Amino acid sequence: MSRQTGEASPGTHRPDGSGAKRPVAPADEADAILAPGAPQPLGAPKGSGAAEPSGPPEPASEDRRQPITMADIRDNAELSMFISAADRVMKGLGYTEHGFRHANLSGRISFNVMSRLGFDEHTSNLAAVAGYLHDVGNMVAREMHGQTGGLLVYQALRDQVPPDDLAIIVSAVANHEEPDGHAVGPVAAAVILADKSDVHRSRVRKQAQIEFDIHDRVNYAAEQSFLRVDSDARTVTLELTIDTEISHVMEYFEIFLGRMVMCRRAAETLDCRFHLTVNGAQLL
C-alpha cells in the first residue's frame, strides 16, 4: 500500500621526595619527567629528558555528543532566539511569516518525507532538525541566508552533535534556497520540499488587500497546501487550493517557478517524480 504524508586536563604538578610539587610537562612536550641522574632512553636527544611511557597509553577521551532530537532543539534557548530574531528581520523587510510556525511545519514535513520514503528514524530526525532551523540565517540578512544559517547552526551545535550528523544538518540548511541551493543529499532534498510547500494565507502579515504585493497575494490566495508522498509510485505532489478571485494561477508561477524547478530536482534526488496540482488540475 502507498504511504502518504500530511572530559578534564590532568594536574600540572607532581610531588617530589620533599613533598613539594614540581611542574609536569604538557603531554605534547614530554610523556614523563626523568628523575635526576636517571639514564636517558636510547634514541632520545641529549638533555631532552624524554622517556618512554611506563605503561599502556591512556584511552582517548570519549566523545559524549549524542544524536540530536527535535526536543533538544526546541529546548535550545540560543536557537529559539535565532528563530525569533530572524522573523523580526523578515517582518521589517516586509516578508511573510518566517517564525516558529514555519519552522515547526518545515521540520514536521521534512521528517514525514524521509520516513515515508523508507529512510531510518535517525536520518529522518536529522531532516526534521534541519527543516526546523533552515531559516535562522535571516537573523543576519536575507541575502545568502542559507549559507549564513549553516554557519550559525554549526557554531550553536558543534559541541552537542556528532560531526557526521552536524555536517548533514549544516549542508541542508545552507542549500535550501534558490538560486544558490542544491539538493546535495536526501536530507537537503526533504528540507527543500518542506520549505517550498508552505504556501498559505496564514503566513501573510498584512490585512488590507491594498497593501498586498504579489507574494502576499499568492500566499493569501492559498487556502490549503498539502505535500503528498506516494512511496509506491515514488511521487511527491504539492497540492494547492487557490482562490483565483484573489490571485491567478499564473501569478503563482510568476514568482514560484524557480522554486518548483528546485522541488523537481529535490524529488529526483529522492528517486521520485515531482508533481503540482492546483485546484485539482495537475500542472506539473
Question: How would you explain this protein's 3D organization?
Answer:
With 284 residues, the protein is of the alpha+beta class. The protein has one domain (70-282): Hypothetical protein af1432 (Orthogonal Bundle), CATH 1.10.3210. 41% of the residues lie in helices and 11% in strands. The chain is built from 9 helices and 6 strands. Strands 3-4-5-6 form a 4-stranded mixed sheet. Strands 1-2 form a two-stranded antiparallel ribbon. It is globular, with a radius of gyration of 27 Å. It starts with 12 loop residues before the first strand and ends with a strand. The relative contact order is 0.11.
Question: In a few lines, what is going on in this structure?
Answer:
The chain has 284 residues and is an alpha+beta fold. Helices cover 41% and strands 11% of the residues.
